[in-house]
Each structure stands twice: as structure tokens, then as C-alpha cells.
């Protein structure tokens, strides 16, 4: 569970990615939110894998996050939360690019030194492990700065009278 | 080193996985409406393709080839890809639960990306060494990422343009993709792979 930082301001960066989440509980004064599936979710071949189709509880629980309840939310409220586009890019680079680059550098270096196939494979795995350690340190740093936490933007309105759904984010 | 560079250029630009081999078209059209999501998906796919290419190469070399069970290749490779996706997901989850919440959405989608399986089958066909196979997978994934980001940028601009009603949406997207493919044909003959 992420830290319940008071990120009520608009996320940094111009291209904010917005999503709707629902307040499902309160823990130590923090609102626990569960993201709602988007319109296209449950429609693809992988719906059963990500938990939207089957209601895979562990996956849905893993996606829960906390927000400081500065807006006076109550259970069942739907809110619009946002994540800066830059945050997504930083998170992607941390999680995927760093381990990949260390792995490739280790592999090519050992190969160029004439290490042989087995040594190259071991070197690649070691490089991947090193990259994962660096990624962990970098992710902790980003999380402590609050760069990876979604921020409250506004309350989302429910469907109007006679409407079966409401796609407007608020 | 020269050969490795030629391999990378050939896989990323000349024989681009999306525009020349026509693999991974589902995510190419589906996840390119916004540049940020395209970048997230591309990096996740790059990681999975590279790791699964390494795994597939090892399975081919130490299991399928010695025991002469090549007919099990497709099934085995699908298993390796699913394992690579699970490994990636578990790693991201353990490295940082916050990262997993931010990026976890893309990972299950990669399992059904035909580019991952297609590239694994291509590296077997090419009878590559371990380093070449890994770099081939990485470079192909880089080409995939490049095209995804370019196409997402173009689609963001098209969304703001006034397009005739009959062409709005996917039709103009397909026309743009075909023009992009023509542009990539300019790389033909630069490096063969």
C-alpha cells in the first residue's frame, strides 16, 4: 500500500492521465481507493488475466491505493485521480530500462572479452540482478518524493437520470 | 562489434517488427491513442521480448534441439513467454508495489502480443548465437517502441485535426500507419538481417 501523501494538487507535467477510483475503506484516516476498469477493459483477450473479468481478488487488492482524505470523502464516493505523464515515463524507465540496460551491457562486455556462451549467459543474468537492485533503489527514491502516487483531482459524478453509464470524468 | 550494430539496425529499422513483419498490430492500434500509455506499453514489451528471447533461445538449444522435439516449439515458447511476463510482474511487484500499481496494467496484455512469439520463432529460424538472439530481440523491441511512440504522436495530432466524418477514427489511423510503413521502406537495403 502506498503512503497516504496529501497530493491534492494537480499532478506535475502537462499530460495528466486521469482515471476514476472508488473509495472502498478508510485506514488510519486515509481513504483506500480501488480503480474502476475503463470502458475498454473486460473486452480484450487478457481480461481474465488482469482481474476485471473474473474479479480476481488478489489483483484488485494489489491495485488499491491510499489518499489523504482532505476532500471529506466517504465510502462509495467516486473520484477522479490523476498521474502526471512524466511520472509514468519515470516509472517505466525505472522498472524496465535500468535492468535491461545493465543486463545488455554486462552481456556484450563479457562476449567481447571472449567469455564464451555459458559465461555470457551468467553475466547477463548477473547484470539483470544488478539492474533490479538499482531499480529498487530508484523506485524507493521516486516513491518517497511522491512521484508515483496518484493525486486527487475532483469528485466524479454518477450517471444522470435515465443514463445507463456516465463516461464523463467529472 | 560491427556485426552487432548491423544486426541492431536491421532488426529495429529495416525489418521493423510492426511495419515490415506486421506483428503486434493489435497493441499498435489499441494502445497508441496517448503517447504516455504508448511509452509505458513499449518499455514493458521491450523488457518482456528481450527476456523471453533469452529464455526461448536456451529452451531451443538445451531442450528442443537435443531431444528433437521441434514440434513442441510453439507450445513451449508460449509457456516461456507467459513465464517471462509473470517474472516481470513479480519483480516489479517486489521491487516497488507503487510501481506495480502504476505499471501493472500493461503486463497481462503482453502475453497475447503476437510480436513476442513471432520474434522467438524468427530467432530460431535465424540459428543465432545467444548474444545475437538477445540483441535481435532487444533491437526488434526497440523498433516496435519507436513505431509505437511515433504513431501515438501522430494520432494525438490527428485527434485535434478536422478529418472528414467517414475517415474519422480508425480509418485515418490505418491510412497514417500505411504512410508510416512507406516511410520505413526508405531503410530497405541499409542492413540485411
TrEMBL record, chain A:
Keyword Transmembrane belongs to the record: yes
Pfam family membership, one: RseC_MucC
Keywords: Membrane, Transmembrane, Transmembrane helix
Transmembrane residue ranges: 88-110, 122-144
Domain of life: Bacteria
Protein name: Positive regulator of sigma E activity
UniProt source species: Magnetospirillum molischianum DSM 120
From TrEMBL, chain B:
Entries under InterPro entries matching the protein: Ion_transpt_RnfA/RsxA, NqrDE/RnfAE, NqrDE/RnfAE_oxidrdctase
Membrane spanning stretches: 6-26, 38-59, 71-92, 104-124, 130-154, 166-187
Subunit note: The complex is composed of six subunits: RnfA, RnfB, RnfC, RnfD, RnfE and RnfG.
Role according to the record: Part of a membrane-bound complex that couples electron transfer with translocation of ions across the membrane.
Species this chain originates from: Magnetospirillum molischianum DSM 120
Cellular-component GO terms for this entry: endomembrane system; plasma membrane
Protein name: Ion-translocating oxidoreductase complex subunit A
Enzyme type, top EC level: translocase
Pfam families assigned: Rnf-Nqr (PF02508)
Protein family according to the UniProt entry: Belongs to the NqrDE/RnfAE family.
Domain of life: Bacteria
Any one Gene Ontology BP term: electron transport chain
Subcellular localization, as worded in the UniProt entry: Cell inner membrane; Endomembrane system
Topological relation to the membrane, as annotated: Multi-pass membrane protein
